[in-house]
């Protein structure tokens, strides 16, 4: 009976060590893959007649020239996001035409793995987070918000792709991409 207990304990230890080794190899493979994809310059291509301009160290505006929103700047404090550290975001944009209702699609990839692909009602987000309401009139709009970054964000590269459009005619508001490493 004692032998059986030792065998089970030894077997569990071997399984745990094997799982840890596989997990470590998987972690290294994911790190290598994310490094490879991080070195590919997704940002250098120009999409149509797009702007393809840097807004800050991690965010690029790849909107089309005729999009309904012209992002003037995006400032982050701290400039580069860190785990467990809130980010203060300040942005200014010019709205070219009134927007009654709008939707944004946000895609986030961890390396090559999609971790988020979701549509957001921008009017609801404006109301809930900025105490602003739709319709949004032509003119300048400023966003000033604090965002918490959780401490459990896994290490590695993240790629964000956000596109927004006006609901009534599907006219694109804007398109940004960002790459950040935690």
UniProtKB/TrEMBL annotation:
Family matches, as InterPro entries: Ig_E-set, ML_dom, NPC2-like
Q: Which residues form the MD-2-related lipid-recognition domain?
A: 62-180
Its BP terms in the Gene Ontology are: sterol transport
**GO MF annotations, alphabetized:** sterol binding
- The answer on whether this UniProt entry bears the keyword Membrane reads no
Which keywords belong to this entry?
Lipid transport, Signal, Transport
Q: Which Pfam families match?
A: E1_DerP2_DerF2
Superkingdom to which the source organism belongs = Eukaryota
Q: Where is the signal peptide?
A: 1-19
The question of whether Transport is a record keyword is answered with: yes
Q: What does this protein do?
A: Catalyzes the intermembrane transfer of phosphatidylglycerol and phosphatidylinositol.
**Entry-linked PANTHER family:** NIEMANN PICK TYPE C2 PROTEIN NPC2-RELATED (PTHR11306), PHOSPHATIDYLGLYCEROL_PHOSPHATIDYLINOSITOL TRANSFER PROTEIN (PTHR11306:SF0)
Family, similarity comment:
Belongs to the NPC2 family.
Q: How does it assemble?
A: Monomer.
Q: Write the protein's name.
A: Phosphatidylglycerol/phosphatidylinositol transfer protein
Q: What is the native source organism of this protein?
A: Coemansia spiralis
Q: What is the lineage of its organism?
A: Eukaryota, Fungi, Fungi incertae sedis, Zoopagomycota, Kickxellomycotina
Which gene carries the instructions for this protein?
NPC2
């Amino acid at each position: 009976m004692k032998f059986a207990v030792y065998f089970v304990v030894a077997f569990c230890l071997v399984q745990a060590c094997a799982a840890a080794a596989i997990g470590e190899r998987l972690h290294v493979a994911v790190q290598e893959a994310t490094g490879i994809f991080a070195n590919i310059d997704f940002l250098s291509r120009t999409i149509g007649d797009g702007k393809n301009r840097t807004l800050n160290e991690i965010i690029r505006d790849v909107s089309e020239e005729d999009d309904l929103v012209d992002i003037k700047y995006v400032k982050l404090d701290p400039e580069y996001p860190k785990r467990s550290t809130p980010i203060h975001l300040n942005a200014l944009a010019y709205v070219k035409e009134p927007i009654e209702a709008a939707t944004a699609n946000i895609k986030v990839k961890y390396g090559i793995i999609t971790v988020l692909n979701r549509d957001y009602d921008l009017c609801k987000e404006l109301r809930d987070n900025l105490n602003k309401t739709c319709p949004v009139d032509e003119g300048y709009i400023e966003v000033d918000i604090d965002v918490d970054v959780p401490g459990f964000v896994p290490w590695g590269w993240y790629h964000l792709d956000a596109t927004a459009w006006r609901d009534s005619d599907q006219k694109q508001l804007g398109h940004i991409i960002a790459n950040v490493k935690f």
